[in-house]
Amino acid sequence: MIKEGQSNERLKYRMYGLVPYNLSPIQQAIQFGHGVQEYNNKMFEELFKDKLKKDYKKHPLFYPFHKWANEDKTFIILNGGTTNKEPDIVTGEPKGTLNQNLLSLSINGVDVACFYEPDLGDQLTAIVFLVDERVWNKEKYPDFTPTNGLIRDITRQPFYKDWVSSIGGDKNAWLRSFLIQFRLA
User: Fold this and answer.
1) CA angle at 11 for the pair 8 and 15, rounded to the nearest 5°
2) How far apart (Å, rounded) are the C-alpha atoms in residues 13 and 15?
3) Inside any domain, residue 148
4) Which site among 50, 129, 141, 158 is 20 to 30 Å from 116 CA-CA?
5) Number of domains in the chain
6) Residue of 132, 112, 111, 127 whose CA lies nearest to 176
7) For residue 5, with 0-12 CB atoms within 10 Å meaning exposed, 13-18 middle and 19 or more buried, which class applies?
């Protein structure tokens, strides 16, 4: 089993995306495609910002994206809810659920790319991010099973830290709980 910090060469990847619920299926797919291209642009800007270095293949963004783009190629397009770039007057938080999800992904260290559709008033219409199989393959990487029913806080359960490490760390554990709320677009 691949642990946090170990090689990710054997892992499979999927490109996940959140799109607004109120677009037609073809428009959702088009927005997702725009988001994937933004991810591609972002990755290569990161790799090449200081001129191409000889060790670019060791960059943490390069291998997963390269493997996904050349081998895995699977898209998962999810209903991300509403989009609204205007902040709430009282809280200052974004109003749209898609916008709120972007904030959650960013806070939890998920590398994302976004697309803002010019024909829709520059509204956020796609958030895309790579997810490795330790998040979505629950047959190979089962969910954590508590061993002590008296401890309600799952993070304090015996062996929980070992399980988190076995699925790639805190970010993957968070992604597992985050993604279960969504349905396919």
Assistant:
1) 105
2) 7
3) no
4) 50
5) 1
6) 132
7) exposed
Domain boundaries, position 105: 13-138+170-179
Task: Note whether 65 and 112 are within 8 A (CB).
Answer: no
Cβ atoms within 10 A of the Cβ of 87, count? Answer: 12
Per-position DSSP letters for 144-185, written without gaps between them? P--S-TT---GGGSTTHHHHHHHTTSHHHHHHHHHHTT--B-
**Predicted local distance difference test score (pLDDT) of residue 133:** 98
Among all chains, which residue has been given the structure tokens 């991010």?
129
* pLDDT recorded at residue 2: 41
H/E stretch holding 27 reads helix 25-48
1, part of any domain = no
Residue 22 lies in a domain: yes
In a domain, 130, yes or no: yes
Give the per-residue pLDDT at 87: 76
Q: Three-class SS of residue 16? A: strand
- Enter the pTM of the model: 0.87
- Note the pLDDT tens digit of each residue in 32-60: 999 999 999 988 787 776 555 566 666 66
Report d(CA 135, CA 150) in Å as an integer: 27
Q: pLDDT tens digits for 9-25?
A: 689 999 999 999 999 99
